[in-house]
Structures are given as structure tokens and as C-alpha cells.
């Protein structure tokens, strides 16, 4: 008979919660032990660690502390899991809290150079939908999933991530390197602590999973992780009530939640898993819109413009072009900008509101990758989110 293992939430913030961490490393100690087949219940915190509430203003968003992102719950030691195995983690249930938010934080997000924010939409949540006074006339159905879920990286994976992300940062790329300020647990990662220079930030997903933001990972789906440390170290957090594929403004409909997981160990099964796999049965169908409107995007831009994802390359050469070859990110940006314009023009929302709507409900989809130079990304909005 399966047992239930509960990881409780305590304290006003993650700093006061012994079951939370916000940096990844092989040396993290488990906060609980579970056996394969047990139900593991995680009481999670929201992605920004309770910095926002019903009274939060845009000025508060601009002043938020990004070093507190993301507080994760765990890790949990799974008996019998050894490096080289695979861990099959099934999402059993996600119970939302009643408050959620979508924020545009200056300096972050896909269109950070065009719509910098700050902005906040507070959402009232139940098991059916989310509604917001800041975006009236929109009702977003519940489509809950873990924005972040994973196992602990091993010592080789931490070293590899630091090397490759460090090289990218040195070349001018957008990579968040270890930062001891507000790092948890402080005993491992704070200034002067043993692993202050090795605590991986949780924004980037890696071999161990993490901040993957895949909305198909809903209740009933199973995620396969490579076991990289003995005991696996299963954790989750950053739970999303709903999200469009792309999470374009940098946040989804963020919330705290009560998440129930169940896992099995596949002995030797990790040898062919480099990055996580996801299996499901109908989850993709549940995310398909009924009535929809789609806008096509191509890798085009204004002359002189250097989008953020290209800024660390040869900027004068990029600026001189209006059409780039096979640039998927630029095609997605083009589709998204056109969708924001369409929402604003046809529905009367501000560009900030439209951007937040896109983060919560608009899917970016690859149409084709072969018709050079203009590969296609479409932005697809479900029309039924608008309350007629």
C-alpha cells in the first residue's frame, strides 16, 4: 500500500522555510525520504517567493528582488534511485491557491526591449479559471502544471553547466551565473559558504530538468529524468495555473500550490536520457483551443533594430539587415509583436495587458523550418478566453 509523504510549507518567505532552496547543486541535503510508489505532496511557494499580493503596484514589481527566484520545495530522497537510473515522475494532482499573478519585470521577458514594464495582473483562482481586475473581460481556464520540476544535478553536471554558461556570459550572452545574495540554503550558497560560486541559478533548465515551462506536463503526464545523484533528489516549485507556450512576458499565471507526485525507479534507464522526456495521454488535446485566431511571424525586423537575442553578435551587420535567415527566435518575436498589436487594436487592451494575455494564453508554434530564409512561427490565441 502506498504511503503519503508531505513536505509542509512554513515561514513567511523561503528564507524561513527549511524545506525550500533557490540554488541547485549536488550537495543539497534531502528534506524527506520516500519510496517508489509513495504519494509525495509538496506545498510550494510562488516563483517570486511571496513578493506580490493583491495590493502590489507596478512600482513594487520594478523593485522586486530577482535573487529570490525561484524557491523550490524539496529535495526528496527516493529510495533505491542511483546514478544511471531513470526516475519516472507522474503528476497526480495540482491544487491551486486562490491568488495568482502575471508580472512584467523590467529587464526580463522575451520583449524586454519593446515592452519593458513594470506591470502586474492579479488573478483570482479556482479549479476552473482565472480572472483579473487588471485585465477585465478575460477568463483563462485552469491548465496547471509545474513550471519547474526536476532532480538534483550531479557533480559533473554542475561543472559542465558552469563552464558552458560561463563561456556564454563572457561572450555577452544572457546567462545568469551564481549569485550568493539571498541564496538558499545560506549555509551552502551565501557569501563565503562552501558552494557560493557553484550554486546554479534556477532560471535555466538543464539535464536535470528544472524550469522547463512545458504546459503539457499536466496532471496525468509522466516526466522521465536521468538520476544524477544517488536518491535522485526530486523537487518542484514555480507552479503555473495557466500559460501560453512561450511564457513570453517572463511569467505565466504564477501561484503557490499543493502538488502531488508519484514516482518509480527504472534501473539503468537513465543511460539514454540526456534531457528529460515527457509522456502523456490526452494532455496535448486538452490544451488545444476551440475557436482561435493565429498570426504568422517570419524572421524579419526593422532596419537598425538589434533584438536582445542577437545583441552579443556582430551588431552592425545585424542592424543593417531587415530579413535574417532561419532565425526561429526572430520569427517568434515577429509573430508575438503582431499578435500584441491585434489584441490591442481589436479588443482595446494596452500593450502591457496584451503582452500579459499572450503569456497566459497564446501559444507560439513552429510552422516550418525549411522554406529558407523565412521559417514560420505562428502565434495562436484561443478566442474563448474573451468574455463576450
Can you describe what's shown?
With 388 residues, the chain is of the alpha+beta class. The protein has 2 domains: 4-284, Acetamidase/Formamidase-like domains (Jelly Rolls, Sandwich); 292-385, Acetamidase/Formamidase-like domains (Endonuclease I-creI, Roll). The protein has 7 helices and 20 strands. The protein has a 15-stranded mixed sheet that branches. It has a 3-stranded antiparallel sheet with strand order 18-20-19. Strands 3-12 form a two-stranded antiparallel ribbon. The chain is globular and about 55 Å long. Keywords: Hydrolase. This is Formamidase. Pfam families: FmdA_AmdA.
Total beta-strand segments: 20
Helix content: 10-25%
Distance between the termini: 49 Å
Number of domains: 2
The CATH superfamily label of the largest domain reads: Acetamidase/Formamidase-like domains
Mean pLDDT: 97
CATH topology term of the largest domain: Jelly Rolls
Taken from the alpha-carbon principal axes, the silhouette is globular
Low-confidence stretches: none
* Percent of residues in β-strands: 25-35%
Number of helices: 7
What radius of gyration results from the CA coordinates?
A: 21 Å
The CATH class of the largest domain is Mainly Beta
Topology of helices and strands:
Elements: E1 4-7, E2 20-21, E3 23-24, E4 32-34, E5 39-43, H1 58-62, E6 72-78, E7 86-104, E8 119-125, E9 129-131, E10 139-141, E11 145-150, H2 155-170, H3 186-189, E12 200-201, E13 209-210, E14 222-226, E15 232-242, E16 253-266, E17 277-279, H4 283-286, E18 292-297, H5 315-320, H6 328-347, H7 351-361, E19 363-368, E20 376-382
Parallel strand pairs: 1-5, 4-6
Antiparallel strand pairs: 2-6, 3-12, 5-16, 6-15, 7-8, 7-14, 7-16, 8-9, 9-10, 11-13, 11-15, 14-17, 15-16, 18-20, 19-20
Amino acid at each position: 500500500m502506498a504511503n503519503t509523504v508531505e513536505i509542509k510549507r512554513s515561514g513567511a518567505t523561503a528564507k524561513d522555510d527549511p524545506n525550500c532552496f533557490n540554488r541547485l547543486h549536488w550537495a543539497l541535503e534531502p528534506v524527506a525520504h520516500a519510496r517508489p510508489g509513495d504519494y509525495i505532496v509538496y506545498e510550494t511557494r510562488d516563483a517570486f517567493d511571496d513578493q506580490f499580493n493583491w495590493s502590489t503596484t507596478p512600482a513594487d514589481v520594478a523593485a522586486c528582488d530577482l535573487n529570490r527566484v525561484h524557491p523550490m520545495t524539496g529535495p526528496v530522497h527516493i529510495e533505491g534511485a542511483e546514478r544511471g537510473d531513470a526516475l519516472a515522475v507522474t503528476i497526480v494532482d495540482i491544487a491551486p491557491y486562490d491568488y495568482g499573478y502575471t508580472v512584467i519585470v523590467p529587464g526580463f521577458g522575451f520583449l524586454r526591449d519593446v515592452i519593458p514594464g513594470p506591470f502586474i495582473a492579479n488573478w483570482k483562482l479556482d479549479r476552473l479559471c482565472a480572472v483579473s481586475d487588471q485585465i477585465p473581460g478575460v477568463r483563462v481556464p485552469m491548465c496547471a502544471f509545474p513550471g519547474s520540476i526536476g532532480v538534483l544535478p550531479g557533480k559533473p553536471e554542475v561543472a559542465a553547466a558552469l563552464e558552458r554558461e560561463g563561456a556564454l556570459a563572457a561572450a555577452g550572452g544572457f546567462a545568469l551565473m551564481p549569485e550568493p545574495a539571498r541564496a538558499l540554503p545560506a549555509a551552502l550558497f551565501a557569501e563565503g559558504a562552501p558552494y557560493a560560486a557553484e550554486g546554479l541559478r534556477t532560471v535555466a533548465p538543464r539535464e536535470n530538468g528544472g524550469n522547463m515551462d512545458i504546459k503539457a506536463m499536466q496532471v496525468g503526464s509522466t516526466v522521465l529524468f536521468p538520476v544524477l545523484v544517488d536518491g535522485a533528489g526530486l523537487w518542484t516549485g514555480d507552479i503555473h495555473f495557466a500559460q501560453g507556450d512561450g511564457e513570453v512576458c517572463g511569467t505565466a499565471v504564477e501561484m503557490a500550490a499543493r502538488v502531488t507526485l508519484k514516482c518509480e525507479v527504472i534501473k539503468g534507464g537513465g543511460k539514454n536520457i540526456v534531457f528529460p522526456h515527457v509522456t502523456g495521454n490526452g494532455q496535448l488535446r486538452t490544451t488545444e483551443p476551440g475557436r482561435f485566431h493565429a498570426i504568422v511571424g517570419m524572421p524579419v525586423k526593422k532596419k537598425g533594430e538589434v533584438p536582445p537575442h542577437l545583441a552579443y553578435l556582430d551588431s552592425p551587420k545585424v542592424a543593417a539587415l531587415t530579413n535574417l535567415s532561419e532565425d526561429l527566435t526572430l520569427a517568434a518575436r515577429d509573430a508575438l509583436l503582431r499578435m500584441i498589436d491585434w489584441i490591442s487594436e481589436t479588443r482595446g487592451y494596452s500593450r502591457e495587458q496584451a503582452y500579459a494575455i499572450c503569456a497566459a494564453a497564446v501559444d507560439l508554434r513552429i510552422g516550418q523550418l525549411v522554406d529558407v530564409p523565412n521559417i514560420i512561427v505562428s502565434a495562436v490565441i484561443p478566442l474563448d478566453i474573451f468574455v463576450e
